[in-house]
Specification:
With about 625 residues, this protein is α+β, with helices and mostly antiparallel strands. It has a domain of about 280 residues: Alpha/alpha barrel (Glycosyltransferase), CATH 1.50.10. It has 14 helices and 17 strands. The structure holds ligand 9MR. The site of ligand 9MR has 11 residues, from loops. GO terms for molecular function: cellulase activity.
């Protein structure tokens, strides 16, 4: 049981929960009437945000699909519903109604009301919502609001590339020399093992830089390349997918116009790197993949890739990395067959070799030791990676060995749809999603498809309960990369729609997008260049305009990690101490724990944005909405 400690709380006019010093607003354990499941602690709203974060009515600052759901969130101490008005660009009232009180919200330390203006379906720009004298940021209503972001979220990858000069003609303002191409120990052409732990050197040139650092990590590269290839593969099975939108020539990359879809060209840049991390034949642990490679010690900000003077080192092989290679190699074999048979075969051979090596070394854990020059990416449990790899190998080959493995894995039937969703360290979901969507003769394929719809139902319930309309159920504790976890839960919802055609899942995805683009307590679009008030100082060593005006900001279409209650960086420790949920975010280049950019976060942004753009105006029979 949980009990509300009523004496400790009071509502201010803005809806901020005023909490007596030392008191706990909600005692731990039971849910109160508003379903709160976590404590709201004193000091929950950091000092810097106390003066406000913009208009109290929060909207999707990019906009709403013509016939899709249209919701907003308003922070207020009012107990009863308040009148709202929707005004067009000329200030004319075009719709009105009453807000719906939702009570206190643990994720924002506010009391909130929601506004549903879904019935209004006239395309246009410059709409604003007005409630209680507060005017929202402007937004549009239309069918094509996501077409630019669909490309930009993917164009992000070209400027993350390692081992190649970035062509200023393709990305004006972002041209730069190639990074890590020297023959010496600061290049990636012949990299040895940390502490001289191996008797060979590998050419691991290429791939994408992970994030704001210049490390390259197989477990994070794996999920990222996978999600790009998966976005492509969805176009083969999903009724609404528009394959041409990710086709050849859509991304302005060096490979554009080579008769291969650009999204696959971009994924290949990473996949080639993943292949290069495999231990060569004849060496100890042959067939395993090195977990990661990065600088021996951290570089300062800013440091452009070609200016990095640190020694590059390989970290030992791990079972998790090896299975990432097996999974993406098998997937690449499938998707590249029509375009480059040789490359497809090379991938399948590497994938099978990796699978065999992982089976022979199932417990080669990645310690998470970062050696102080890169991220840890520790992974101690690999049952999920085994499941994912078996799924991909099965889907590509149909072989009994993998089918048997799947049927014997507890993860084949477990409820794997966790509250926080999947990420680089939790990948069973990737296998399950593909088994449900990629055609195969899997004996229990119908059951697997049903299990994905069950996952979608779970996230749908979260969207419906959450006053910000998104699928995340951690209450006031937000994880590192929370935005990507939310987007990954939206991938499950979208797949639920692809499988069933039921628009309730699609509409939940559309609502989740509202949160990412401004319907959150900070009134912030977490995507650079989209909306009115957006993140632009993400942590990066080369998009470091905040530190050096001569450098560019992150490119448009870059996702920020988002609120992170851990406050792991010094700036957050200082400015966000005690913060609650959605307030645990700073748009500052030094706030790496909440404001980094990464290849594994833009991947679900691209996937989900493509899904949303595919829905055009989101038309559907009224009785299904
Ligand atoms: O995304 C990673 C997150 O899940 C971890 O909690 C965090 C701490 O280990 O690291 C994150 O990954 C970072 C990586 O270690 C180094 N490159 C930047 C990544 C994003 O912040």
């Amino acid at each position: 049981m949980r009990t509300a400690v009523t004496a400790a709380t009071a509502l201010t006019a803005t809806g901020l929960l005023a909490i007596a010093p030392g008191a706990t607003a909600f005692a731990a354990e039971p849910a109160n009437s508003s379903g709160l499941s976590a404590n709201v602690q004193p000091g929950a709203v950091p000092e810097m945000y106390k003066s406000g974060t913009g208009p109290r009515v929060r909207v999707n600052q990019v906009g709403y699909l013509t016939n899709g759901p249209k919701n907003a969130t308003f922070t207020t101490g009012a107990e009863k519903g308040l009148p709202w008005q929707l005004k067009d660009a000329k200030g004319k009232v075009v719709a009105s109604g009453t807000t719906t009180p939702q009570g206190p919200d643990a994720a924002s330390a506010h009391s909130v009301h929601t506004i549903d203006f879904s019935k209004y379906a006239t395309p246009g720009k410059g709409y604003k919502l007005v409630v209680d004298g507060e005017t929202s940021h402007p937004f549009a209503i239309g069918d094509k609001l996501y077409d630019n972001l669909r490309q930009d979220a993917l164009r992000f990858y070209y400027t993350q590339r390692s081992g190649i000069a970035i062509d200023d003609k393709l990305r004006p303002g972002y041209g730069r020399p190639a990074g890590h191409v020297s023959q010496g120990e600061t290049g990636d052409l012949a990299v040895g093992c940390v502490n001289n732990g191996c008797d060979y050197k590998l050419n691991v040139k290429g791939g994408w830089y992970d994030a704001g650092d210049q490390g390259k990590y197989v477990v994070n590269g794996g999920i990222s390349a996978f999600q790009l290839m998966n976005q492509f593969e969805r176009s083969k099975t999903a009724k609404t997918a528009q394959a041409a939108k990710m086709g050849d020539g859509t991304l302005a990359i060096p490979e554009s116009k080579n008769k291969v879809p650009d999204i696959l060209d971009e994924a290949r840049w990473e996949q080639e790197f993943l292949l290069s991390m495999q231990v060569p034949d004849g060496k100890q642990n042959a067939g395993m993949a090195h977990h990661k490679m990065h600088d021996e010690s951290w570089t300062a900000l800013p440091t452009l890739p070609h200016q990095d003077t640190k020694k590059r080192v390989l970290y030992p092989p791990s079972t998790a990395a090896t299975l990432n290679l097996a999974a993406t190699g098998a997937q690449a074999a499938r998707v590249f067959t029509p375009y480059d048979k040789k490359f497809a075969e090379k991938n399948l051979a590497a994938a099978k070799k990796a699978w065999a090596a992982a089976k022979a070394n199932p417990n080669m854990a990645a310690s998470g030791d970062s050696g102080s020059g890169g991220g840890g990416y520790g992974d101690w449990s690999t049952q999920d990676e085994f499941y994912w790899a078996a799924a991909e190998l099965y889907l590509t080959t149909g072989d009994k060995e993998y089918a048997d493995y799947l049927q014997n894995s507890p993860l084949h039937k477990d409820a794997i749809w966790s509250d926080t969703g999947f990420d680089w360290g939790n990948v069973a979901q990737l296998g399950r999603l593909d088994l449900a969507t990629v055609p195969s003769k899997l004996a229990d394929r119908d059951r697997v498809r049903k299990s994905v719809v069950e996952g979608a139902d779970k996230y749908l319930a979260m969207v419906q309960k959450n006053p910000w309309g998104m699928p995340y159920a951690v209450s006031d504790r937000y994880n590192w990369g929370s935005n990507a976890q939310i987007l990954n839960n939206m991938v499950v919802l979208a797949t639920g729609f692809d499988i069933t055609g039921d628009v309730k899942y699609r509409d939940a995805v559309l609502q989740g997008m509202d949160y990412i683009l401004g319907r959150n307590v900070l009134n912030r679009s977490y995507v650079t260049g989209f909306g009115t008030s957006y993140s632009v100082n993400q942590h990066s060593r080369w998009y470091a305009k905040q530190l050096d005006k001569k450098l560019p900001p992150p490119p448009v279409g870059t996702l920020a990690g988002g609120p992170n209650s851990g406050n792991e960086d010094d700036l957050a420790k200082k400015q966000l101490a005690g913060c609650v949920g959605q307030y645990c975010y700073l748009d500052d280049i030094m706030a790496f724990a909440s404001n980094e950019l990464t290849i594994n976060w833009n991947a679900p942004l691209a996937w989900v944005t493509a899904f949303v753009a595919d829905q055009k105006g989101a038309s559907a029979p009224a009785d299904q909405r």
